Each structure stands twice: as structure tokens, then as C-alpha cells.
Amino acid sequence: MTTRGSRSEKVKRIFQQFDTNRDGGLNREEMAALVVAVNPRVKFSDEQISAILDEVFRTYGEFIDGEKGLTFDGLLRTYDDGAGDVDRDFDALGLELKPLEDKNGISQASEEAASSSSVADERVMEPHKKQRTAAWAASPNHGIVFDDTWKLVDDLEILIKRLKAKQLKDGKIKNDNSDVFSDPGWSRELGPSTEISDKRVIWNESGPDYAAFVKELGVLRSRADRARSRAEAFDGQMAIGRVLYEHYLFKEALSWELFVCAWRHSEAKGEFLLALEAAEAGGNQWAYLLPQIHVNLGIALEAEAVKALEEAIYMKNDYADAHCDLASALHAMGDDENAIKEFQKAIDLKPGHVDALYNLGGLYMDMGRYQRASEMYTRVLGVWPNHWRAQLNKAVSLLGAGETEEAKKALKEALKMTNRVELHDAISHLKQLQKRKLRGNGNGNGEAAFITVEPSKFKIVGEKTTLRTELTIALDIRAFQRITRLNRCEVELIKKEMSEGDVPVSYSGSGVPEKSIRKASLEGILCKLLNFLKPETFVGAVKSINQKILAVLDDSESGRVDLGMFFAVLAPLCGGSPDKRKQIAYESLLWRPVNEGNTQIKKSDAQRYIKLLRAIYIPSHGISEILEIHGETDNSLVSLTEFVTMFDDPEWGFSIMSTLLKLETGDRSRHGRHVCATCRYPIIGSRFKEMKSHFSLCSQCYCEGKVPSSCKQEEYRFKEYANEAEAVKDKCLWFGSKGSSPAAS
């Protein structure tokens, strides 16, 4: 394991190697040279290099020193964050550590190493691996397979030995037996020995020494994650889990982190099934991991979640996390009564289980049981006093229960915890309700009364005002974009995946060549595109993509997807300029084998693509439009410019993208004190002003056709304002034309 001292020295040597102008920073040209040099086998395009540098300079902006570029501390931080492997890059560059000596002839590197608690140094002093490790580790069938895994085990044993020494010194360890620590004493029967089972050690998990151990353990797990192959990563993680188990560090052995690498680097279902198969085949060796594998498998399998989670509970009935996850799965399936029971079981097992309490509060909110919801959020705050979301939800639930004064107090408490804009909106909403004191359509919740108007009665003023039907479609696409976080995925990453990915050509039932991929393998590609997501968020994103996109692309249910077409369908929703999104969509179609050897795509191919786009993102047109080709099939070639014209066609293209872009840019646009006349919430995004009665609607209420019941008219004429600057400009123009005071806004 590289010590912090030697690690810093290696990064310094790398930095000095590429700081060619010696100004103390790596500019874009110098950083590009570094990226290329440490990846000698990869052929980067200029666009790929540019995308990488954009990401680095954006992510580590605090370490950018003007035109000089990334500072040494910034480069060190990139390695600390796992963006690169210091040892690998150092070796790839052929550098050597040549310690600098001070005036007394003492090596600075030696001084650093001596002052640090170097695991690597301790490992050197220990006997060789096979002389002191258990029989299971050397077993050809169930033991350690890769050499680097031996290093992980060695380092972990040293960390445990160090923790043991500190806790022994402080008298924190119970049931201590020095033999347990000086030699793991693993049985040759691939299970914990009877001797050790009779002398179970109870660790003290509080205090800085244990916290430091957990932090160093995380570094080891990260090393295992960065292994050269999936098999080696799995070997390393399983060995780490085995060592932790044998030393009675059960909490760490059962943690989620043990399998997060499998989730993040491949399709979760296949990896967890392989893990389950390996654990079961190993007999007692990995039996301790079976409940956790079943929990993670349950999260990954979606439709099979309940069964897998119930299996985990059957194996370990007092597993609070499994009960909590099962409750969430049951709620997702609509079985709320049983979900409540499982949440309650988790809480009974662990009264301070924050996730169970918080999610049960949300479930009660969904069911309209506001008083019970507020009780759950109160309990969350008892465990986690600064949980501002629980405080905000408590206020909302109290409002739902009709306890307005208590809701006001809860909101004020939330405001003390954080200054987030959501709280200000909620407070403004509450004030509006108190002013109006109106009851909405018999629901008794104090909402402003409204009526719903049919679309034909909504008219627009000005060319920039979005039609109600069009905005409804765009809001639906925007909601999907938010769930999947696709707008945070730079569209250039799709191009990178096409250039670096190796997808074999296969043939469809009609004999057409295509680069198709199994749905399960597709999750691995999505994991790379959406690598910024947490595992639980990624699960939701994949589920949404499967339901909205893959269900249409794989209409024959073959289990395979045309990857080029999939990339082309994703591109319009990714991050980047409109022109770049369309360009990548075009290049994705060009990448397909059917267009191989051409510099342009077939018109029929472009037509089918646009129809797929409309079928996926514009549900009103339905799947039937995919089969419709207006006019005869045209195999003429289409340039990028012609493709963009087809794409932007208002009748047969995907012109809805312009409205989507307006929603993307208007997410943070606010309109001063203007609130929606029906929902009473502050307006965010576009404001739709009715030109006769002068009330304003938010985008959602405008789409739903809601207007105040006090403003009944034969028709309603709306003008859209993207921001207040437009509204002010409109007022000035009106004032200039009329020569009198403008109408109230």
C-alpha cells in the first residue's frame, strides 16, 4: 500500500514531469499530454480529450490557478478521489523515486515514511503470505486466485493487528485472546474453527481508533474495485469479507460497500447472481454473506425484489435493513398495508432506524394519514435533530392534518436548519393559504378553489407562448429526464462509448446487420454514462429507461437492443448544446453496421429513428406510428444538415425538443412575488399570464387547465413569460403605446 508520503511524492514527480513551463500549474495542453501518456494503449480523439479536460477543470475548479491551470494540490486531489491510480500512472511513465536529501544528508522520503504508520513497511517485516495465512486462502478451489489479492489480505491483517494493539492498550476489547489476533487460526474445513467460535471477540466500534480503521478499510476496498478485471475485483472483495468475518468484524463484513463495486462496474443482476452462486458453492466459507447478497440482489432485480428480500429475512429474521428494503419494495408494488408492517418490524428491531422512520412517514403521507406521518418525522428528528427534510415534511404533514399553527412552527425550525429555496416556497405557500382561507373543490385542505377548462378554450398570445398540449408533452419528457439524470450526462460521452466500445455485429431476424446488445449488458454501459449516480438512484434510472425506451426498442421481446439506435434515442435528452445533441444522434445512426462505409445515413433510417423518438417520448402518437412511412421507402442518403431539417420538422419531426430546452434553462427562473392562482405556490419556470383577468398560472396548472373559479370566461388568452425581465419589457412597451399606467400584472 502506498503511504501518504510516498503517494504525495509520486504525484509531485508526475506533476513536475508535465509542468513543462514550470509555472506551478498544468494548463490544458499539459494536462492533455498527461492523460495521453498514462493511457498509452488508448487512442483518444481531440473531442474525447477536450471532454475529459472540461470535466477535470469543472470538477476541480477550486484548484485552477487562472491560465496556469491545475495546481499540484488539485492533481493530488484527483488521485485521492480515485480519478486515477498513482502507482499505475507512475510506473507507466517510467518514473523513479529518487529521494531528495537535505543539508544533513537525510532523505526526505525516508523521513516521511518513518513518520507515517506505513502498512507497506509492516508488510515487509511480516512473514511471506503463504507462511502465515489460512488453509482456505491457499486452496486451489475456494481460496485466493490473484496475487494482488494476497497483498490486500496482508494489508488488512496489519490494519486489524494495529487496531487490536490500540484497543488492547486502552482496555476496550472484550473476550480477548492473543492467539486470535496473532494468527487468524482459520480452519482447514473452510469455516471458522471451533476454538475461535468459543472465544468470540467483541470490538469497541466507537472512538477514533475504530473510525480510522474503517477509513483505511475503505481505501483497501477501493483498491479491490480498481482491479484489472471483474473476477479479480470479486476475488479481492470476497477475501476482504472473509478476513473481516474471521476477526469478528461482522458490521464491516456485512456492509453494502462489499458489493458496491459489482454494482457500479457491471450489470447488477448478473453480478449478484454470480456472487450468490459463488457464496452458496463455497459452503460455509461465504455463508455469512448470503443475507447481504440477497438484500442487494433484491434491490437489483426490481420485479423479483420481494422474493429475494423475503429470503434474506428468512435467513436472518433480525436484519432490520432487509425489513426496511422489503417495505419499500412492497410500497412500490402498491401493497401499502404489508409495507407498513415491514417498516414497523424494522423499527421494532432498531428503534432509531432513520430510513424506516422517514420512509414510513412518506408512506403515511401518501395514504393521507397526516397525523401518523408527523409522528414518524418527529421520531426521525429525535434521532437526527438536523434532518431538515424530515422537519419540512413534518410541517407539510401537520398542514395536511389541519394544524396550521404547528405547521408554521415546524417550518420556522426547518428554516433554522437550512436556507434552501424549498423552505421559502413552503412558507410563502402557507402565507398565501392563510390570506385566502379558501377551500379547494371539497378537499378540505385549504387550497384555492379552481375549475378545470378544456384545451380548446385556452388561446395563446404571441409566438413565444407554448401551446398547452405541447407543454404537457415536454413536461413529461422533462420528468423522465429528471428521474434518469440524463441531462447531467454530457452527450460527448456517447461518442466516446461508441469509439471505445467493442460490440460485435449480429444479424436480426430479417438478416439486417446490427450492433445489438443484451439488456443486462446495456446496464453496464449506462453505469458508465451515469457514473455520478448513487446505486439506489441508478436503479430507479434503469427502471425508467427500461419502461420508456427499451420496451419500445425491443418490441419483439428478444432481450437484445440495437445499441446505435439506443444511443441516438438518448442523445436529445443528454447534456450539451442542441446542435451537438443532434450531431451525436446522427453519428450514432451512422455508427450502425447498416450504414457502414458511408459518410451519410439512409433517409429511411432517419425516418424510422424520428418515428421511434416520437413513439417513445410523445405517447399521444403511440407505437403504431413506428410502422408508418409517409410515401415510399427512400434509400437515398441524408447529410447532417438534411437530418437536422427532418429532426426539427414541426409536424413529423421532434420539434418538441425546443420546448424541452426552454424547460431545462428555466428550472431556476423565479418571478418575484408572483404565485400560481390555483396551487398558490411561487412560480418557477415560465409564468403564464391571462391577459383579461390578469391572473398567472405555473406550467403544471396551465397544462392541467386549472383556472380560479372566480375567473370564469368563455375563453382564456395566455401569454408566456420566461422571466420577469420579459414581463417588465412588455409593461414598458404597453405603457409607451397607451401613454397611461399599465394594467396590473
From TrEMBL:
<protein>
    <submittedName>
        <fullName>TPR repeat-containing protein</fullName>
    </submittedName>
</protein>
<feature type="compositionally biased region" description="Low complexity">
    <location>
        <begin position="107"/>
        <end position="119"/>
    </location>
</feature>
<dbReference type="InterPro" id="IPR011990">
    <property type="entry name" value="TPR-like_helical_dom_sf"/>
</dbReference>
<feature type="repeat" description="TPR">
    <location>
        <begin position="320"/>
        <end position="353"/>
    </location>
</feature>
<dbReference type="InterPro" id="IPR002048">
    <property type="entry name" value="EF_hand_dom"/>
</dbReference>
<feature type="domain" description="EF-hand">
    <location>
        <begin position="6"/>
        <end position="41"/>
    </location>
</feature>
<dbReference type="GO" id="GO:0005886">
    <property type="term" value="C:plasma membrane"/>
</dbReference>
<dbReference type="InterPro" id="IPR019734">
    <property type="entry name" value="TPR_rpt"/>
</dbReference>
<feature type="repeat" description="TPR">
    <location>
        <begin position="354"/>
        <end position="387"/>
    </location>
</feature>
<dbReference type="GO" id="GO:0005509">
    <property type="term" value="F:calcium ion binding"/>
</dbReference>
<dbReference type="InterPro" id="IPR011992">
    <property type="entry name" value="EF-hand-dom_pair"/>
</dbReference>
<dbReference type="Pfam" id="PF13432">
    <property type="entry name" value="TPR_16"/>
</dbReference>
<keyword id="KW-0802">TPR repeat</keyword>
<dbReference type="Pfam" id="PF13181">
    <property type="entry name" value="TPR_8"/>
</dbReference>
<feature type="region of interest" description="Disordered">
    <location>
        <begin position="104"/>
        <end position="124"/>
    </location>
</feature>
